[in-house]
Fold:
Amino acid sequence: MKEEKKEINYFQQYFGNLTTELYIDRYCLYCGDNEVHYCPKEIESIDSLNSTEFNNLIATFFDWCSKSDEEVDIINKQHYNDNTKKKRNHLYVTHVLIQHLFGSLYYNKFTQWIDSKSPRQRLISYIFVLGSKSEALKGYHIRVFEKMTEDLILFQIFRREMKTKDNRSYHLPKATVLKVLERIANEKNRKILELIDYQHLFNMIDNDFDYPIELLIKLINLDINMLTTLLVTVIRDQVKTLKIDTQKPIEFYKNLIIQIIKELDLIVWFYEIFGDKFSKFLEGIVIDDTYPTSDRLNILLHTKLFNFKFKNEMATKINSLIFNSSQTSYAFCYTFYKQLDENGFIELEKLFHKDKYYFFLAIPKEMVTNEIRQNYRDSMSSYSNNLDMIKIIILFKILDRAEAMQIFTSQLDLISWNHSFKSDIITILDDLDLLLDYSRLIIGINSQIDGLFNLLQSLTRLWSIFFNTLSKMTKPAIINLVIDMIRKNSKLIVSIYKGSQSYHQALFGNQQVPNALLEGDFENAISLFRSYLKIDLYSASPASKSNLYLVMNRYEDVERDVIFRVGKLYLAVLVNIITDFSEWGQTGLNMMLSNIENYQLITNAIERYYSCSDGQIAVVNKQSIPDQVYKFMEFWLFLNITQQTEDKIYLISKYYNDITKLYENEKPNGLTKLFFIETPLNAKFCKSSDLFKQFYFTLPPIATDRLVNTKLGYLLHLEKHKYLNKNNGNVVRNTQPPMSMIKKIIHHFSYDPIVRNIQLPMLMIKRIIHHFFYDPTIHNLEKVEISKVSKQWFHLCSDILSNNVDERNRSYIPIFRYSKINIEYKYSLWKNYPKSINWETLKSLPWNLIDILLYGHLECLNISLNYNGWFLERDTQLKTLIVTLYSPVEEPLIFDGILNHSPLIESIEFIVHSNWLYLYSTIESILSLQLPNLKDINFYFCYNLRNPIGIHLNNLKNKFEKLPKFNILSVFEYISFSGFNTVGIRTTDVNIPKMIEFYKDSLSTVKDAISFTINTITHIIPLIEFIDQHHPINSLSLILGQIPNIEISIDQIQTIFNRLNEVTNINIFSMCIQLEKSPSPYSILSPNDWKSINLGKFKYPNTIYTKFYQTLK
Structure:
């Protein structure tokens, strides 16, 4: 590289030598390898860049994209005046860099040129918009989708050069999709229609989009090849939901029918809708020479299904169509013959000359002559080895029986007793015909060579293979034809299976086949099926056994057989056969328990008996649910959430006949398993179970508050208050009234003549509302409801919500989809985005909002470990930075890019999910920045994360004059540490002697406060004594990390305070219940119970919290 080239910016350094050809999906532009990859020669060099270099590269690329075409031309002339050099290709640069920008705030900035006058800029924005399915880009997705029918030349380039590797659904609004498709359907200019990139267009539409059939017809009538291909795919995928208007003449669908002729399933679909009208329409196509031969042949293959009635004068034409076409396979010739021979349309000589094998198979036995027999003998050597079903049929048809038997018996060891049946519409009917012919033949042969070979056993195997194939069929019209043929030949089929001594589960792959056999030959079929009830079915599939018992349940009592011989239950068996699990003792209860995790059974039962909408608590008519289903479902839920440790079989037997007492021994700490009910399916049942709801309503708020902000939790919350009011108002401790009650109170006071004129100071009203919004246990919808009291209250609520976060930097109402916030909307509670936001959310917002929020509004930013994402251009207003480390950190983290632009930063918090070996060097690098307002650095070590070398920051005091406070918010027990102001330790078991030895150095360095998370209240006094005697410190917190199994008594708490008043060092003491996923800490006692406690020298502090642990001085 020449010296002057060194000044070329990052973009030009890395991408100045690109070729202009782009075949990204075919081979690498750099090295030519025939695979999709990043060429290590050039592209992977981006990964080696450090954070600053990478962000400089992106910044200069963005600057290049932002320039006008004229400015770009000037740059090209300056740096690419050498004619031997090819100009860089910005399309490929975009494609390369987009892969590296997904974690960057820059990504959405590249979408801003979607309506630019510059084709270069528009194309770059198209690539970025279509490269992301972010909800924030929804408006851009819509616009790009619309522009696919406008910016045709650019999307031709896009289609040719930047082919997508996968389908993307962007959840476009239905109105947008219909508008664009209607525009295409109404376009008169053929050239425009041929330029549209239909592949990308349809890739953007959801797979389950509900297309109007009339619109599909209009689009197919345009006769654009690629468009038609895509539309046929759409129709095939949505055939079950498309609505055909049978009032319209079948000619309306003419072009659609022509296009789907090769799609056999779709042909059957039309036939099931229109019946004989469709058959008549197809007959017209067959004899019309203007239609392609292949299409007409495809129709003829369905003769048996469609019951065509061709007139004799058309025989010559159809013969010519079949035998003069190079597109007709030999096998199809046989199929045509079998379907058309009644009308004598096919001349056998033509079939003979076409293919002798199929000629021998097709010719009726009565037409076989000596000449044909000799011809067959001459041809036998070419296909007689390895006899199979079809060859055996031909053998006995062409030759006389004696000669055929001689050949047959001499080649028994060469016979193949398997056959591959096909489940497609064309051949399954012919296969069944052949199998019936073969069965009759084998039964006759077996009587002559009985004892030489068990031919009947092999025949049952063939029938089982056929029934397995039939189970794969999905078209009712074809299945009905097959079942009808089985019904007509029941005697033959039953006689075959009666000759076998074993159970053939394929016979019961569904219930249609055995029912058809019963209808056709009841006496023999019922005798056969009864014999199956007496033999070992151990190896049979659960589905096959279940179908056997469901069929026989109409004629026999099979409940005992099901209990003792079926493992996996199906809903039909549970509903129609089982009546009482307990009647069968331990075996019945074991079967019930073994199906508790039978997801298919649970799903089907809920959908059938407990279906209700998301916004409702269902009132289920118990009379409509079979008792065995009702009990099974109640036990399913109970056994998945119970905290009882007894054997599950014991629990089932204990409550089975008195199920109303199912939850009587459950403890309040049931929260640990209540997460089970949060899934949509489980929630649907919980909303319908009175037993569960009555138990749930007795739980204290600490056990249920985590669920309140879910749909299910809020519905149960409202239902709970209805239940309590109905039951004489026996309010559970610490419950809150629903919003409807609050509104009634407000309404009452608003019209009370005495209080109507009393005006509370606005500051007081605002503080009351602020308390209400702050409380994390109040449902979000209730916070919205209280804002509707008046216009003044709405503005107060809006101000509180938009400008405040709690002490953990969380918004008072959680936001799950920031793209749905419209701060410009008149009735939006959010007048601005929250001051606390996470990095993932920020980078997904529209490009014009990112800078506004990041540099002028946010006070707290939560980021994940991402080396290339922390790059800022100017100063922010950030006061708090939260860093979540999910993966092991293998090098010191560098925060210069973000911290140098955050002069107001006061607090940094690290949430650590994995080992962090470079903690010390990372903190050292942060301190070296000398941030003027930094007050504390906090650490939260998740789970049972262990650090073998400990967590030590004590040496930092020797390197820096001014240090912030270092606090460990939470760390697992027996990990050493030093240099921290406060420490929180999670314990599993309090072993005081071990703690004295291990923590003698670590705790001695703690300056301000110590907290322990414990499992039981009995650990409190030992820990008080431990701190008092070994680590004098004035502030101690003790946190119960789980709900106590036994309610904590006033006497227990009094004993704690009696001991606490005897120590001299502890001046500040707090204790509470704090669950890991609970929204807030909880008081150990109720407010009334605290009044009974003699606190001694300790007192309650003033606090704004509506639910708070007792802090006592």
